[in-house]
Write a structure and sequence with these properties.
Layout: E1 3-10, H1 14-24, E2 27-38, H2 43-46, E3 50-58, E4 61-69, E5 78-86, H3 89-98, E6 102-118, E7 121-129, E8 138-145, H4 150-163, E9 171-172, H5 176-184
Length: 188
């Protein structure tokens, strides 16, 4: 079963990290438009599941990805992930609404993706900025591995982060969905 091993950091010096990543791999700039769905009683979220429709716009091209993430496995930084390309986000929205699902939250991320191999792992490092979280820049480093390789993959990701000047104090376990939802709550 494919497991996404990922660590996210809040960047203190985004320009230095961008320069270091640029020395490792070419940058691909894109925008992710993410919509998360759940049942009205929030049972997916409460069960640590995620159902997401992501539209990725890169230059003039657009693709839609449907992602289902299962509850964390052994590590709070790893979740089984099932993802496939879909033809039309609007059709998915219609299907989900027809099944009784509702939109939990939607937001955009402006991303700079860098793909490279380090210590035997194919990694995706994404510098992300969200309009909802203005003034904050994040770095996600992830890889897909089998369950028995999660600890090793996380150690590699942590080493790459340290190579980029990111300390354990910079790491965050709070998801974008929680951060954005907290800002959008009345009275926030």
């Amino acid at each position: 079963m494919p497991i996404e091993a990922e660590l996210t950091a809040v960047l203190r010096d985004p320009d230095a990290v961008r320069a270091a990543l640029g020395a490792r791999a070419e940058v691909e700039r894109c925008t992710y438009s993410d919509t998360y769905y759940d049942w009205p009683d929030h049972r997916l979220t409460e069960g640590d599941y995620n159902l997401r429709v992501r539209t990725v716009t890169t230059g003039e091209s657009t693709k839609t990805l449907l992602t289902f993430k299962e509850p964390r496995t052994g590590s709070r930084h790893a979740k089984p992930e099932h993802e496939t390309e879909a033809g039309d986000a609007g059709v998915l929205r219609t299907i989900f609404h027809g099944l009784g699902l509702v939109e939990r939250i939607a937001f955009r991320k402006h991303c700079e993706n860098h793909r490279f191999t380090d210590r035997g792992h194919d990694l995706l490092a994404t510098v992300a900025e969200l309009p909802d979280l203005a003034g904050q820049t994040f770095l996600e480093v992830e890889t897909i591995v089998e369950a028995e390789h999660v600890a090793e993959a996380l150690a590699v990701i942590r080493a790459v982060l340290h190579d980029l000047g990111i300390t354990d104090d910079d790491l965050s376990t709070e998801s974008y969905t929680r951060r954005v939802a907290a800002l959008r709550r009345p009275g926030s």
